[in-house]
Specification:
About 70% of the residues lie in helices and about 0% in strands. It is an all-alpha fold and about 90 residues long. Helix 1 (about 10-30) runs antiparallel to helix 2 (about 35-55). The longest helix has 22 residues, at about 55-80. The protein starts with 8 loop residues before the first helix and ends in a 12-residue tail after the last helix.
Length: about 90
């Protein structure tokens, strides 16, 4: 059984929540290519959360970088291209 009293338990909890949301994405977004990619990301996130519960400090550093990159990718997907024009009043 995994010890849930380690120093990374809060981070692991948030990653589990994120993994759960990624895993149910195909149910709401259809089984398109992007939704199935989110399914794979959810499985990877579950593995990361499990490793954090095992108190793997090196994985915590890697998880920080990976989730930061994932956040940048998510923002890039939802931000409309060309919406930040200089002098635009819209």
């Amino acid at each position: 059984m995994t010890d849930v009293k380690g120093p990374f338990r809060t981070g692991a909890l948030f990653i589990v929540v994120s993994a759960g949301l990624h895993l149910i994405a195909p149910l709401f977004g259809g089984f398109s290519g992007e939704a199935l990619t989110l399914l794979v990301v959810g499985i990877v996130y579950l593995g990361i959360a499990y490793g954090l519960l095992k108190n793997l400090r090196w994985l915590a550093y890697g998880a920080f970088l990976l989730l930061m990159a994932g956040s940048v990718v998510a923002i890039a997907h939802i931000w409309p291209a060309g919406s930040f024009r200089h002098g635009s009043t819209r």
